[in-house]
Amino acid sequence: MIADCRYAKVLEVGYGAGAVLRLSRAVYELSYETAEFDLVLSFSVFEHLHRYEHALSEVGRVLKPGGRFLLGIPAVNAMMELGFRIIGFKGIEDLHVTTTQAAASAFDRAGFRAVCHARLRLIPGLAIYFNWLWKRPRDARVALPS
Known about the structure:
This protein is an alpha/beta fold. It has helices at about 25-30, 50-60, 80-85, 100-105, and strands at about 10, 35-45, 65-75, 115-125, 125-135. It has a single domain (about 10-135), classed as Rossmann fold (3-Layer(aba) Sandwich). The longest helix has 11 residues, at about 50-60. The radius of gyration is 15 Å and the shape is globular.
């Protein structure tokens, strides 16, 4: 989804060695300059955030005008629910507080426009992972939600 361009400066927003509970503050307050990056990547992070739109606006802040944001979020469905129970969690909803629908609906409000979208399926009709490539328009103003 991002192979068509070269990127001078890239930021991955992730949780490293695992501390998902400590993730929120770092995502809500990225310690980088405004308009510093050409590309921001984030996989399996934003679904854990209660203040998803705030974090999305922060990504928009650190992106250069015309910059891209590649976001991946796992699906919440019966297959993923079973997987979470197998590895010891009560249910997926305990950790996944932002749905793919909420994610997709928030981008327009944050000043992004869709470039493309893809789904990973293990069997026909059942998506297990969603990826979006978003672009910050060159003239977009990024405002944090109150």
